[in-house]
Amino acid sequence: GAFLRYMRQPIKQELICKWIDREPPPPPPPGGRKPCSKTFSTMQELVSHVTVEHVGGPEQSSHVCYWEECPREGKPFKAKYKLVNHIRVHTGEKPFPCPFPGCGKVFARSENLKIHKRTHTGEKPFKCEFDGCERKFANSSDRKKHSHVHTSDKPYYCKIRGCDKSYTHPSSLRKHMKIHCKSPPPSPPPGSQGYEAAGP
Hints:
Layout: H1 2-8, E1 15-16, E2 39-40, H2 43-55, H3 80-91, E3 96-97, E4 106-107, H4 110-121, E5 126-127, E6 136-137, H5 140-147, E7 156-157, E8 166-167, H6 170-181
Antiparallel strand pairs: 1-2, 3-4, 5-6, 7-8
């Protein structure tokens, strides 16, 4: 009984702030600048810390992510909310849960939740723009992929030498590529009839 109670306890998670402070001003200290490294037991504590201590309030005019090894490499955002959204890539915060019972999916961006909810509601607000086509889609990227069926545009080409197949959609090309990946079955040994005897 005690072991099962122990196993059901949530695993203690330690969340570490990896924001690299820009204080003191240059030149950087010997050994380079170090990340903040404060630890937190909940996502809410980490997010609150990063927002208050590092991102700053409305007085901040520069919106740069200084998270350790951020691929943006100091490129600023035009608005604070964009920086706050971006930081979720580093922290793993997903503050937008799907409200549909039993779904359980969570999202880092409200726009992604909005698109996801359409899988539950069946809403398809993006109508095909070609006259006579009544197809509708839950998001604009699916509509764009569909639009290739109305043109002779087949931008996804097989790159295997001697194969001239092309497709309107990348998934069709991936399916086609499987025929190139299959290797022929091994040839039976000479003199056999394609199978081996089961024993003497």
